[in-house]
Amino acid sequence: MKIKEDSRESDPPVAPTIDAKNWPKTIDALQDYFSSVLGETKAPLAYVIRDMAEVVPEADDISDNYDTPENEMISRMPHQDNNGDNLPTYIHDRSKVWQTMAEVCRDDKCWIYVKPFQRSRDGRGAFQALHAHYLGANHVNNMASVAEAKLAQAKYLGEKRRYNFESYISSLTEQFQVLNNLTRYGYAGIDEASKVRRLNTGIKTDKLNAPKAQIMSSRALQNNFDDSVGLYQDFIAQSRPANDNEEFNVSGFEGGGGSSTGRDGGRGRGGGRYGGRGRGRGHGRGHGRGRGGDRKRKHGSGGDVEDRHYSPAEYAELTPEHKSQLRSLRLAREDKQDTRSAAQLLTKIAALEKKVSQVTFAEDEGGDENDQDAGNTAGNSNRSHSALRKPKRSKS
After folding, report:
1. Which of 51, 98, 127, 261 could lock 121 by a disulfide, CB 3.0 to 4.6 Å apart?
2. Which tens digit of pLDDT belongs to each residue from 314-326?
3. d(CA 204, CA 386)
C-alpha cells in the first residue's frame, strides 16, 4: 500500500514546541507531526509511536475501519518480523523519531524523561516515557485540579475596558477545553450543565440578573452553554445603547431643537433625532441658536442605519454590522458637539477677560483725574488764605 507523497518530502512540517501548561495539546501536536512525516517505507512515522506494537490480523481488522489510507498504514505497519526481531526499516524510523524528540525536548525540563533513550536512539521509548509521565493518572488529576481552580477564580464584574464579557467567556472556554482533552486519559470531563453553572456562578453583577433568572428557569438553557452565553451577549448589546439613548433624549428636551423662548429657556446638548443646542432668556426675550434639528445621518457606504433612538425591538433587528455603524455615528456626533462646546466656552472666556480689562483701565484713569483736581483746588485755596497775605504798611 502506498500513499501520495506530494508535498511531504519537499516541504516538511515544522516540529512542534513544548507547552508545559497544556500537555495534552503538546502530545497531540507530536502525534500530528509524526503523522505528516514519512519514514523509510513512505509510511507515516506515527506507526512507530502507536499504542500497540503488535499488528492486528487483517482478517480481524478490515480496511473499512479506517477513514484514510494513512491511518490504515499507521495501524498495519509492522515493527518486527516473524522471528520477533526488529525490522531494519523500523529501526531506521525509530531513530528518526528520536531525532525529533531530542530537538523538541532538549532545552526543556522534560528532557530528563527522554534522555535515558539517547544511547539506543529509541524514539518510541522516549515518546512513551513522556506520555506516561505527563499524562499518567496522577498528572492528569493535577492538571484537572488546576483547570478547576482557574474556573473558580474567573469572575465577571461588568463591562470594563480591559476585561469584558468576551474576556470572561474566553477564560472559561479555555479551561473547558483543557478538561475535555483529559477525558482520553481517564478524567470524567465536564458536561453542559456544569459549564452553565460555572458561567452563572462567576457573574457578580446585578445588571445581568434578568438573563440569569431566565436561564435558571429554563431546563433547555441549563443544559446548553452556547445558548446561555448568547442570551447574555444579546442582553448586554441591547442594554448599552438603550442607556445612551436615554441620556441623549433628556438633553434634547432640555436644550431644544434650535430655538428657546420663555422663562425656562436654557442651553443643552442633545442627541438622538431632535438633539440640538438652545439658549434663551425668560419673559419673552428669549432667543436661541440650534444645530442639527431634525437631521438624519446615514452610513456613507450605502447602509440604512440612522443616527436616532431605537427601541429595544428595533435594535434587536439590527445586524452586528449595523450596530457597530450606529455606535460609530453616535461617538462621532458626541466628539463634534464636545469640540463646539469647548470653542464657545473659550470665546466667552476671552470676551469676559476683555471686559474686565476695559473696566480696570477706566477706573485707573478716573482716579488720576480726581487726584489732579483735588490738588489744584487745594493749591488755589492756599494762595488766597489770609495768613499768607502780606500785611499792609501803615503810613507814618
Report:
1. 98
2. 878 888 888 888 7
3. 99
Half-sphere exposure (Cβ direction) of 374: Cα atoms closer than 13 Å: 6
Contact 57, 43 (CB under 8 A): no
pTM as predicted: 0.47
Contact status, residue 280 vs residue 266, Cβ threshold 8 Å? yes
Angle, helices 225-255/192-202, rounded to nearest 10 degrees: 30
Count other C-beta atoms under 10 Å from residue 329's C-beta: 19
Mention every residue, 6+ apart, whose C-beta is less than 8 A from residue 69.
1, 3
CB 35 within 8 A of CB 44: yes
Q: Report d(CA 313, CA 104) in Å as an integer.
A: 56
Tell me the pLDDT band of 141, cut-offs 50, 70 and 90: confident
In whole angstroms, give the CA distance from residue 344 to residue 289.
12
> Cβ neighbours of residue 192 under 8 Å, at least 6 residues apart?
223, 224, 225
Which residue in this structure is represented by grid cell 475501519? Answer: 65
pLDDT tens-place string over residues 274-312: 444 444 444 444 444 444 444 444 444 445 678 787 888
Secondary structure, 3-state, the chain: CCCCCCCCCCCCCCCCCCCCCCHHHHHHHHHHHHHHCECCCCCEHHHCCCCCCCCCCHHHCCHHHCCCHHHHHHHHCCCECCCCCECHHHHHHHHHHHHHHHHHHCCCCCHHHHHHHCCCCCHHHHHHHHHHHHCCHHHHHHHHHHHHHHHHHCCECCCCCCCCHHHHHHHHHHHHHHHHHHHHHCCCCCCHHHHHHHHHHHECCHHHHHHHHHHHCCHHHHCCHHHHHHHHHHHHHHHHHHHHHHHHHHHHHHHCCCCCCCCCCCCCCCCCCCCCCCCCCCCCCCCCCCCCCCCCCECCCCCCCECCCCCHHHHHHCCHHHHHHHHHHHHHHHHHHHHHHHHHHHHHHHHHHHHHHHHHHHHHHHHHHHHHHHHHHHHHHHHCCHHHCCCCCCCC
Whole-angstrom Cα Rg for the chain = 43
